[in-house]
Recover the amino acids of this structure.
């Protein structure tokens, strides 16, 4: 236990320092915001979902040095090692059901906020004025150099004490800072700062970039929906104009080895965040949870 604590010490201190910077930036607009940092946790999303169901409804940012039972979309694991990745969640009440596109659209709005924050942060670093673009793969992935950099998991539930029309919403974000134990073929943010001179990006630094913009984006999304963000999202859409495979049969996914149920040409996203794909059946619209999508080699 002593060895583990020693290994976590610098990462924990880094995240605590970031929490202070986030509080200074966000507290004027979010006076009831709670920020927490854990050395280790099963899943930041699970922790905040459980709190909401118990009626603990204050907006909360929760980060962890290490996640042992992290979850991605469709139940996939998202494990994290101290210093190699940033894993955190934001829990808050939202009038999600009143917003066109609901959680599917929220995932796109969150992805856009994270991508913008990362680029702004990278451009602020010494000798890095032209940071590479961060792409977005519908519905919940961030891409760098054509590879997955991170993912987003949106969960929502009724909770005691909510106002009518509200749901308790938890937004989970995981990003690769260094490759470390990331799956083969992944991207890491450290590669976007080639002039680092041996200095490393840290999870705390990246968290401090992302969290204030994320909070602002979520509040704007609740008021205006996804439509005002559609054009900005389209500029980062890595699927637009590509031939894609669609897996829409329950139980069949790209990871299961089954062939796609349909193939078509991705044509961006709608004002409600739905994926638009032109297939032999015409233009189809898909929301997150209905389909998995992957780029396909041209026939």
């Amino acid at each position: 236990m002593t060895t583990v604590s020693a290994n976590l010490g610098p990462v924990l201190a880094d995240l605590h320092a970031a929490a202070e910077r986030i509080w200074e930036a966000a507290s004027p607009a979010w006076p009831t915001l709670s920020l927490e940092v854990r050395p280790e946790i099963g899943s930041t999303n699970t922790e905040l979902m459980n709190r909401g169901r118990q009626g603990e409804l204050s907006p909360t940012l929760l980060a962890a040095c290490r996640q042992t039972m992290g979850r991605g979309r469709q139940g996939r694991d998202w494990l994290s090692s101290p210093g190699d990745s940033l894993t955190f969640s934001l829990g808050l009440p939202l009038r999600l059901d009143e917003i066109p596109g609901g959680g599917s659209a929220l995932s796109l709005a969150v992805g856009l906020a994270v991508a913008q924050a990362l680029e702004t942060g990278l451009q602020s670093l010494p000798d890095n004025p032209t940071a590479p673009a961060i792409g977005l793969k519908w519905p919940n992935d961030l891409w760098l150099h054509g590879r997955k950099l991170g993912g987003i998991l949106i969960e929502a539930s009724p909770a005691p004490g909510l106002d009518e029309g509200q749901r308790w919403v938890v937004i989970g974000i995981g990003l690769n800072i260094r490759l470390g134990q990331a799956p083969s073929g992944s991207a890491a943010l450290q590669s976007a700062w080639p002039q680092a001179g041996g200095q490393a990006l840290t999870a705390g630094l990246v968290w401090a970039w992302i969290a204030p913009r994320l909070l602002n984006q979520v509040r704007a999304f609740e008021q205006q929906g996804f439509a005002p963000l559609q054009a900005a999202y389209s500029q980062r859409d890595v699927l637009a104009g590509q031939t894609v495979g669609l897996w829409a049969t329950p139980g069949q996914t790209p990871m299961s080895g089954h062939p796609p149920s349909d193939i078509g040409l991705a044509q961006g996203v709608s004002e409600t965040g739905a994926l638009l794909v032109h297939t032999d059946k015409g233009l189809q619209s898909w929301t997150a949870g209905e389909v998995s999508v992957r780029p396909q080699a041209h026939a």
